[in-house]
Design brief:
Length: 239
C-alpha cells in the first residue's frame, strides 16, 4: 500500500508536530487534520494528548470530528490515542467540565459507585469506545501532575499484543498528566498498568483501538518502537 496515510486529529489545542514527526520516522505519511472527511478516509488515526477532556470532546463534537472518528473505527480503521487521547475513548471524564454543564455523578443512574466516590461530578461524555471513567489522580504524598519517566507493567494480553512487540516489561516511558482511567475499566481492555497514586491503565486496547497514557513520541527509542508497531498494524489492515 506504500506509506500508510495516518491522520493526527487536530482539535485545536496545541502543537502536534512531535507526533507527526514520530509517525513519519516510523514510515507513515502523517499529517494533522480537523477535516471530518480526511479523518474518515485515513488509513490510520491518532488522537493526541493536548488540553483538557471537556474542551477536547466539546470541540470534537461541534466540529464533526467525533462522528468521523467513530465512523472510521466502525469501518475497521486502526486508532491510537495518546495521553488525553486515550482518556477520550472512555464513557466519561470530569476534567475541566463547567459546573453548569455535564451530569452530576450522584444523580447519574449509571454511575459506578467507586468512580463516583473517587471523583464526583460534573461529568461529560467521552467517545464511549471503552467502558469506564477518567478521574483526577489524588495523593497527599506524591506530586500531581504525574510528570516524568515511570514503569509500564504489562498484562498477559499486553505481552502478546502487536502494539507492544519488542517492548520490555517494566520499561520506563514519559508521562505528564493529572487524570487517568479509574477502576471501572473493563479488565479485558487493559494491556498495561502504571503505579502512581493508584494503579491505573497506561495502555488499553478494544478491537482496533489502542491507547497509551504516556507519550511515545517523547519516550526515546522504546516510544518510537510503539509508533513503528502502530504503523505496521495500519499497514497490515490495509493489505
Amino acid at each position: 500500500m506504500g506509506e500508510p496515510k495516518i491522520v493526527v486529529v487536530d482539535y485545536h489545542k496545541g502543537n502536534l508536530s512531535s507526533v507527526v514527526r514520530g509517525l513519519a520516522r516510523a514510515g507513515a505519511a502523517a499529517c494533522t487534520s480537523d477535516d471530518p472527511e480526511q479523518i474518515r478516509n485515513a488509513d490510520g488515526l491518532v488522537i493526541p494528548g493536548v488540553g483538557a477532556f471537556y474542551d477536547a470532546i466539546a470541540f470534537m463534537r461541534q466540529s464533526g470530528e467525533e462522528v468521523a472518528v467513530l465512523d472510521a473505527v466502525a469501518a475497521g480503521t486502526p486508532l491510537l490515542g495518546i495521553c488525553l487521547g486515550l482518556q477520550l475513548f472512555f464513557e466519561r471524564g470530569n476534567e475541566g467540565v463547567p459546573a453548569d454543564e455535564g451530569v452530576d455523578a450522584d444523580v447519574d443512574a449509571d454511575a459506578d459507585d467507586d468512580a463516583s466516590e473517587q471523583a464526583g461530578g460534573p461529568w461529560v461524555d467521552g467517545l464511549g469506545i471503552m467502558r469506564g471513567s477518567c478521574t483526577h489522580l489524588e495523593s497527599s504524598r506524591l506530586k500531581v501532575p504525574h510528570v516524568g519517566w515511570d514503569q509500564v507493567h504489562m498484562t498477559p494480553a499486553g505481552a502478546a499484543d502487536p502494539l507492544l512487540a519488542g517492548f520490555a516489561e517494566g520499561a520506563n516511558m514519559y508521562f505528564t498528566h493529572s487524570y487517568a482511567v479509574a477502576d471501572d475499566v473493563d479488565a479485558a481492555d487493559v494491556l498495561a498498568r502504571t503505579h502512581y497514586t493508584r494503579s491505573f491503565p497506561c495502555i488499553v486496547r478494544h478491537g482496533n483501538v489502542w491507547g497509551c497514557q504516556f507519550h511515545p513520541e517523547k519516550s526515546s527509542a522504546l516510544g518510537q518502537r510503539i509508533l513503528k508497531n502502530f504503523v505496521s498494524i495500519v499497514e497490515e489492515v490495509g493489505r
